[in-house]
Structure formats: structure tokens, C-alpha cells
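To whoever picks this up:

The parser on our side crashed when reading a file containing two proteins. I've narrowed it down to the boundary between the first structure block and the second sequence. Both blocks are reproduced below exactly, byte for byte. First block:
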Amino acid sequence: MKKGVGILIAVLAVIVVLVIAVVSGYNGLVESQETVENSKSQISNQLQRRADLIPNFVKTVKGYSDYESETYKAVTEARSAVAGANTVSKQAEASAELDKAISVWVNAVTENYPELKANTQYTALLDELAGTENRLAVARKDYNDNAKKFNTSIRKFPRSIIAGIFGFSKYDYFENDASANSVPEVSFE
């Protein structure tokens, strides 16, 4: 009789330990997943911040120039694409297009209208855009770091079992598309 009670207690102890391990593993994955989602939303926040700065920048430049509508159209289309991107890969692609459009536009306007460089509102907005680009780079790095931590976590034993049971899946990394690696050509002819 005592032997049966001892076995029952041992079995219950093993079950309690397993339940605690599963609950702890699940909660750790949920926390890690929320960290990745928060990081992803920070990228969206910085993309939105940049997109919000562009109309002010355009208004400032409008007062100085009859800038080319084609260049402006590329910037506004890219801005709209960023606002509509709903996945990390689409955000990366749209962000790269916006980066390229802004770069060409700013270079063209600055080259064609040197008096604009002296305008304090223009330089303040240019500084804001540069600061936003830095914040965006940090947000992308943080997202990728948190995605790596989460992805590693769901692949390690025993959490891989818990992740499989509860349907946790890998996050994509934020990577620029191939066109972001090339320097845009700017011609002022």
C-alpha cells in the first residue's frame, strides 16, 4: 500500500513539474512574441513619422520652386505604399522605394535651388528627416534582434515542442530589397 502511494506521489510530482515547465515555456514565448510585435510597431511608427514629415517638407520647398511633378509624384506614391504596407517584407520594399524617391528629390531640389539651403524651416525639416531615418534604423535593428531571439527560442528544445503545440511561428527579418543596396543616380542635366 505504501509503495502504491509513493508511486502516485512521484507520478503527480512529475506531472506538476511538466505542467509548470509547459506554462513557463508558453508564457516565455508569449512575452517574446509581444516584444517582437512591439518592435514591429516601432518600425511602423517611425515610417509614419517620416511619411508625416514629407508634406511639410513639400510645402516648404513649394514656396521656393516649381519642382518637377514627376519627382514629387514618386515621393507621394512611395509614401502611400509605406502607409499601406502590412507585412515586414512589404514595409521593407516600400521603405526602400521611399528612401530612393526622397534621396533623388532632396538632391534635385537642393542642387537646383541653392537659396533653399539657407531657409531655416527647410534645414529644420531636413534635420527631422535625418533624425527619423536614424530612429528608423534603430527600430529595424531592434526588431531584427527581437525576431532573432524569438526565432531561436522556438527552435530550441524543449520550447520547440511547446511552440509547435501552440502554433508559434517564425518571424521574418526586416531586410531591404536588392534595389536599396544600389546608390541612386541623380542627373541635373
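<<boundary where parser fails>>
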Amino acid sequence: MVREFAFAAAVLASLTADAHTMVTGWAYPPACCRGSELGGDCERIPDASVSKGQRGFSITLRPGDHHLVTREHRFKIPYGDEIPSGDSDYHICLHPTEHHMNCFFAPPDGV
């Protein structure tokens, strides 16, 4: 019985560690998100962190804007490289470290 419980717990942990789902029901694609809801590398970021220019989005992340960020980072995302978010918020995935932007999500009206 203990073995069955341990197996079930391992299966459940592996299912929840692949990607995480937003309250609104959409999930980050597995290629973008590595980790779980509590320890993943994807997170909503403040609208104030994102500005729109002629060629794309400029993102300035400061400590507190994303749980992985320990110092200021700037990223440029050309228009067309963003992924539509499933809500009205901006989201970013940082992987393998806080210095690397893996995926950027913008609201459908974000362009």
C-alpha cells in the first residue's frame, strides 16, 4: 500500500511540475515553462514594466516584478515574437536564469 501511495504521489507531482495554469484557465506552453506554479520561471509582470516602441516591446524588470529577478534586466522583443496571453496581462518566462528571456506573452490588444 505504501508503494502505491508513493507511486501515485510521484505521478501527481510530475503532472503538476510540467507547466502551470492561470486562474483564467489558460496555461503556459510546456516549451516556455519549466517548473511548477510556485517555483516556475513564468509569471505575470506589471504593465508598467512593458513599453511599446516602433519596432517592438521594451521590458524593464526590477526586483519584485518577477520572483526570479534579483537585479534590473532589460529585454527587447520585436513585434511578432510575442505570444498572445490568455488574459489581459503581460507574462514573461525566464530560463535558464533570470538573465535569459524564454517567452514573452502580451494581451491580445498588447500590440
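After patching the parser it read the second block fine. The chain has one domain: 2-106. Residues 36 and 42 are 9 Å apart (CA to CA).
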